[in-house]
Design goal:
Layout (H helix, E strand, L loop, with lengths): L17 H13 L6 H13 L4 E5 L2 H11 L7 E5 L1 E2 L2 H8 L3 E5 L10 H7 L4 E7 L8 H9 L4 E5 L7 E2 L2 E2 L6 E5 L12 E5 L2 H11 L33 H34 L5 E2 L7 E2 L5 E5 L4 H13 L9 E2 L4 H7 L7 H9 E4 L7 H22 L1
Helix pairs in contact: 1-8, 2-8, 3-4, 3-7, 8-12, 9-11, 9-12
The protein binds pyridoxal-5'-phosphate.
The site of pyridoxal-5'-phosphate has 15 residues, from helix 3 and helix 4.
């Protein structure tokens, strides 16, 4: 696809067509808008696509992570290891249940856990780790599972960015105990806001279903077993309302129809970016890598400035913004955010790779439907910005 470049290039945007509109219309016309047939279909299709026994819709990936920590019964005596470079809720979920977050540094090549750092962070109190598949690249699960299995440590996969990503040919989300996905508009598929909790363990799935639904032992709605008219459920657990609506699930079902096409287009654009950056010898930038055996979703295409620090990175981003090209830093070094600094007295330098990643990464626009001309424009602008900022720094 070539064509005239779009005037303002957003970092990404959702892909909707008549299918979402038709499903939402059908949902509204049915007058059943809380969990119902579309939720059941979305869950079944998501589970099938990711080769999982159970998938449960929820209001966000943050809610999914919270449910995961509750279902695993993590609490104040427990430590949960989280990569220091990720979105804040990968860590917050442990704090929600009173557990202590322990950070481990990342590998700058992949932006995921450095297995050696993870091993070093383990203590007798470690009960779980959050394996983040950042930007859609699977975490080093072989190493992680080898470390955790022998110590009986639970693995929560934060697959917020990793719908459709694979590790050694297997979809992520069922490699650990519980997987958590996001359908925020910046993700591979979207329902506005929304998430999915996945597991192959029937008991965990039951517990999550109950916690998601006020602690009720029977879900309400058309999929419940027929009960007596006066039946109100048992409510033996302190639960929450973290249910996705059927209106959102109607959008999710339509998005599942196009998932493989969306992934193909993202991968194609990512490959082309890498080719362009290499062919034009833009060596100050390091393109993202996918180790052998990892099927990257390229939810985000994140480059790292190899030469120069945060100041130059910001100059480059400013130059692109002046040309109508939106970019964002990769994500946070969570150990530097106020809540964690204040609570745990952590220094920025304690996790140097996470600090470097926060200061030197740039997420470039990538979305299905992006044209060659759009991409050429981003790369031309980047080249110009690198040149300009390089001179300013000299
Ligand atoms: C790695 C990671 N985890 C969790 C989340 C939270 O997802 P949600 O916005 O659906 O709560 C995000 C969102 O950007 C994320 O990138």
């Amino acid at each position: 696809m070539s064509g005239t470049p779009s005037k303002n290039l957003a970092i990404t945007f959702p892909q909707f067509d008549e299918r979402e509109l038709e499903n939402v219309k059908a949902c509204l016309e049915s007058k059943w808008v809380t969990q119902g047939p579309f939720s059941a279909e979305f869950e079944r299709r998501f589970a099938d696509r990711h080769e999982l026994n159970s998938a449960l819709t929820t209001t966000s990936c943050t809610a999914a992570l919270h449910l995961a920590c509750l279902a695993l019964e993590l609490g104040p005596d427990d430590e949960v290891i989280v990569p220091a470079f990720t979105w804040i809720t990968s860590a917050n979920c442990a704090e929600y249940v009173g557990a202590k977050v322990v950070f481990a540094d990342i590998d700058l090549e992949t932006f995921n856990f450095d297995p050696e750092a993870l091993k070093a962070a383990i203590t007798p109190r470690t009960r779980a780790i959050v394996a983040v598949h950042l930007f859609g690249l699977a975490a080093p699960m072989d190493e992680i599972l080898a470390i955790t299995a022998e110590r009986g440590i639970h693995v929560i996969e934060d697959a917020a960015c990793a719908v459709g990503s694979t590790y050694r040919g297997k979809p992520v989300g069922g490699l650990g105990d519980i997987g958590c996905f996001s359908f925020h508009p910046r993700k591979v598929i979207t329902t506005g806001e929304g998430g999915m909790v996945t597991t192959n363990d029937a008991e965990l799935a039951n517990r999550i279903g109950c916690l998601r639904n006020h602690g009720a032992s029977q879900p309400p709605g058309p999929q419940s077993a027929p009960g007596r008219p006066y039946s109100m459920g048992a409510f033996e657990t302190l639960g929450f309302n973290l249910r996705m609506s059927d209106i959102q699930a109607a959008v999710g079902v339509a998005q599942m129809d196009k998932l493989d096409g969306l992934l193909d287009q993202r991968r194609l654009r990512a490959e082309r970016y890498t080719q362009l950056l290499t062919a034009r010898e833009m060596n100050d930038l390091k393109p993202p890598t996918a180790p052998d055996g990892c099927g990257h979703s390229y939810q985000s295409y994140v480059v790292r400035l190899r030469v120069g620090g945060q100041l130059r990175r910001n100059q480059v981003m400013d130059c692109l913004a002046d040309e109508g090209i939106q970019t964002r830093p990769g994500t946070h070094a969570v150990h530097r955010l106020g809540y964690y600094v204040n609570k745990y007295d952590i220094r920025a330098e304690d996790f140097p790779n996470a600090k470097t990643a926060e200061e030197t990464t740039i997420t470039l626009p990538i979305f299905p439907g992006m044209t060659d001309a759009d991409q050429d424009r981003v790369v031309d602008s980047l080249r110009h910005a690198l040149h300009k900022s390089g001179q300013a720094a000299a």
